[in-house]
Amino acid sequence: MDEEGQLIQPRDQSCWATLPDVCLRRIFWWLGDKDRSRAALVCRRWNQMMYSADLWRYRTITFSGRPSRVHASEFESALWYVKKFGSYLEHLEIKFLNPYNAVLTKKFQVTMQGLLLCLGKRNNRLKSLSIQHLELDRLVWRNSIRSLFLKSLSSFLKKMGQHLDYLNLKGARLTVEQGCHILNSLSYLRKESMVSGLNIEDYFSHHLAVYSSPQFNKTMATFRSLVSLTLSYNCISDELLENLCENNAGTLWTLNIKCHIRDPHGQVIWGMSWAKLARSATHLKVNFFFEQVMKYERLARILLQEIPVRSISLRNCSFRDPDWSMRPTLTDLLPTFRHTLQVGMS
């Protein structure tokens, strides 16, 4: 206090008080949720900054799959965020890391049910949703838990499908019936989906020959504005290429295809089907990712000359046979694909 008994304000307080909104918003952007909440208590202006839409448009919610007191609050904090700031959300990524047992998958299912229900009521601006590597065919996912989760996800996509521009369900590992049911939710009441980016790599269980499923091809026919499509080779068929040619030729730019040794990949795809798609989708480029598929005979059956290939990646080149050599495969591939081939050894 001064001699007259009045409070002396700290000299630096005026600097914070006159800080431009753009600078203050940037400071809030770097803070975690708890620090933002504490900062919002400083004054009315900082409290208003706490509710700036720019701070909450992007969100990654991570759930640990291991029982721990440290991670016990993850489920509660996820619901807290959606209830408080879900209306601002535009890009949501959800991760569930290697669930340990059925207790945790049940807790995840209950949390996601509340989260998706709340988000469906409060949000009309969500553009992208990513839920990766759930591996729903594992034993820790009991049938009842899996069914309830898929029901919640389907209901959410039916409501939000008209807003979504990108959907990533990589590694869900579903049956054909389950997977098609979820994808069909995007075109609910509209007969077509306007999603431009779709990632369904390992979306179906590894052993399934999805390419022979009429149900899958019918589902993929509902997509009419795909710019980028990522999927496994066990989904590729002449019918799928025909669908892409008819419904997405004017928009399709990128096709990412993963082929794993465990996936069925012996189907015959006609070169004329690829040629027709390449003629129609003039900007199309195809990226191949092979995992443990190293023999030239198998690669040659897939890498047809009609395909507009941008890159080829050979990954996990480890074999138990000490006499096996990569040289013959590379010798045959390099003349044609020397500018696009990448080899990863492990």
From TrEMBL:
A cellular-component GO term for this protein: SCF ubiquitin ligase complex
Domain F-box: 13-59
SUBUNIT field: Directly interacts with SKP1 and CUL1.
Entry annotated with the keyword Transport: no
PROSITE patterns: FBOX
Annotated Gene3D superfamilies: 1.20.1280.50, Ribonuclease Inhibitor (3.80.10.10)
Record-linked InterPro entries: F-box-like_dom_sf, F-box_dom, FBXO31/39, LRR_dom_sf
Lineage: Eukaryota, Metazoa, Chordata, Craniata, Vertebrata
One BP annotation, GO: SCF-dependent proteasomal ubiquitin-dependent protein catabolic process
Protein's name in the database: F-box only protein 39
Alphabetically ordered keywords of this record: Ubl conjugation pathway
Function per UniProt: Substrate-recognition component of the SCF (SKP1-CUL1-F-box protein)-type E3 ubiquitin ligase complex.
Highest taxon of the lineage: Eukaryota
